[in-house]
């Protein structure tokens, strides 16, 4: 919330059932909200749910202008908040940084528009395009701020996918432990493991967490059963020369209620999703480090680049996060979003 060029209040929706971001920001601003501009990442709600309508509070606060990226795709809103604000004399500007804002809440948008499942790819690379100093090694590519940012990203998803080589090398926890406020639930770890080689002493088994291992149908039965006894949910997907069929993997996860999927790599897993066209967004965390020519590369050739259209670039501590969208997927989403709103008489 900004007044006379100065931020006078800010807020975010902490968890389901708590006050929405607009109300938190208004509480922080107090009387300074009168005549201010409110910048919000989602259209203010105009219906009663677990909390009263945000538009009522905004109107009563004396806010002069509201800037938002797009309509809320939820069927209970879809432009009604915009209409209510304009009817009360509040200036509403729609379309600011829409692609970046929608990508930040992509799972929500696609769920409400019945376009699930949603797949977002994430990788961390150095300035010279490396993900490790050498194949088979584990190195910190980005700084603390970026790693915390990734934990917040995980909290938006139902499942986090990695390849079995990453499990052997990194021994990842794939949780949200860096978030001070905690989360209602952590995402479910998913390992793409054609031959059922996932180590039984993995971090999730030690912590008593559920996890998924996806194998080929002809994986060694004894290994599969050992993983199952160890607490793993076992799914199967067709395997080819490039590994498991990732489209089958995503369908299997979605059928189990895991429709918002974050893919964290490594490089082979990353490109398997790209080559299959099975992705909606990509987030690349770039550091200023240089690992040199002996490192493990993200890109398979000198001419290769991040797929998709760049829609956002922001600093995260000492690193940079670049966001890309899949044009084919994005076209379906924007068309569905445009069709979701029923024009009202006299609407601008």
The CATH topology of the largest domain: Dihydrofolate Reductase, subunit A
Coarse structural class: alpha/beta
The count of DSSP E runs of length 2 or more, i.e. the number of strands, is 18
Looking at this structure, what is the CATH superfamily of the largest domain?
Answer: Dihydrofolate Reductase, subunit A
Give the spatial strand order of the biggest sheet. Answer: 11-10-9-8-14-6-15-18-17
- Fraction in helix: 25-40%
Sheet-strand content, in percent, reads 15-25%
Task: Give the uncertain stretches in residue-range form.
Answer: 344-348
In the CATH hierarchy, what is the architecture of the largest domain at level 2? Answer: 3-Layer(aba) Sandwich
- Average pLDDT: 93
CATH class of the largest domain: Alpha Beta
Keywords:
348 residues, alpha/beta, Cytidine Deaminase, domain 2, Dihydrofolate Reductase, subunit A, 2 domains, nine-stranded mixed beta sheet, three-stranded parallel beta sheet, 18 strands, globular, disordered C terminus
3D structure, described in words:
With 348 residues, this protein is α/β, with parallel strands linked by helices. The protein has two domains: 95 residues, Cytidine Deaminase, domain 2 (3-Layer(aba) Sandwich); 228 residues, Dihydrofolate Reductase, subunit A. Helices cover 30% and strands 23% of the residues. The strands form five sheets. A nine-stranded mixed beta sheet has the order 11-10-9-8-14-6-15-18-17, with helices on both faces. Strands 3-4-5 form a three-stranded parallel beta sheet, covered by helices on one side. A two-stranded antiparallel sheet has the order 1-2.
